[in-house]
């Protein structure tokens, strides 16, 4: 039963006195100021157990979180994943590929065995031997992980991070089942599903649903987009919960904006900017007697094989104008010195599509100081937007594009197109390619976290900068939903 309170007999007594009004105004002002400051404070960190937070930062050196002026875009947190998702895969390196052991190629933090004592020794300046390795084209995951662990923009505190790197070696996890006779779709997906289960339980993933997370994939995107159980590859990139994660991949799906193309690893992993400049001088001055070169294996089983056509073009031009290297049976994989020697002696190198639209050969070509000749726009122009200048005719600064259908029809020849380019123009193109080399290579990881130094960015620096820009652009979208 409600209590009845009679109205005060004197209505004037209900009016606030001036002192009361002043006090109310004062407190209202204080409340307004408080709420204004509260509105601009960063969002609180997601709730998580202190034990989990300690586990994430336990293996991180305390040296990180420096106020590096080059990290104005933010800091990157590297997850400390269970070993099953990376380190354990490295330990089974002799079982990851059916044709040969990957152990030599995954040594030295993914860079591979040093070039000293190999066939590369005779091609390289003596002082640069320490910057060259026998790197595998699919070692990206390991290389990027090790480089980010010592990156100047890494933070040990996830609450301070703008972007989160997930060091899952998905290419190794899926790749070990690709040629296994009895492997099922479930086998190829098992590690990927387990990784997503672990990741989705992390508070930082739940905060953004993955919009500020990224991962490096060491195989082409199509190896992770299986459409049916009996088809090729895994289905990692079609699994629930991966759609918002940015994937840095050596070949991207042009119709998926969450794929970002990054360079294939080459054998050049400079330790400092001085190494890069020495290499740039070396390739810029090297004599190039051949007009163009082509390294690749023909695909005789493919009707109208375009590679066979290019080999025929090279033979027709003669050895003084063109050098050809038949890479059948893994010859070029086992001896990359043959490829580098070929490209370092030519002004142009032919880059048709490979088993897919991209090839490591494109980056070997440019690191060697030669100008790539392309026949498919998806081989580079629609792949590596963070790394290669594209749009508004900028492709012509560093490459030549030839219409493959005109070539097939006999309306032009490779030699005719390239020989018609004026020599001053060729020189400018080669200078542009040589200038781009630092951004196309992965520096050797260093304990100081400075990377190449000297204001020079390598491929991982470009990657971090691009990812931080991407997160800043996407943040309003995921915070509004």
TrEMBL record:
Region annotated Disordered, chain positions: 46-68
Exostosin GT47 domain location: 71-409
Entry's family note: Belongs to the glycosyltransferase 47 family.
Organism: Panicum virgatum (Blackwell switchgrass)
Domain of life: Eukaryota
Subcellular location: Golgi apparatus membrane
Single GO MF descriptor: galactosyltransferase activity
Keywords: Glycosyltransferase, Golgi apparatus, Signal-anchor, Transferase, Transmembrane
Main location: Golgi
Membrane topology: Single-pass type II membrane protein
Any single Pfam family the record assigns to this protein: Exostosin_GT47
Protein name: Exostosin GT47 domain-containing protein
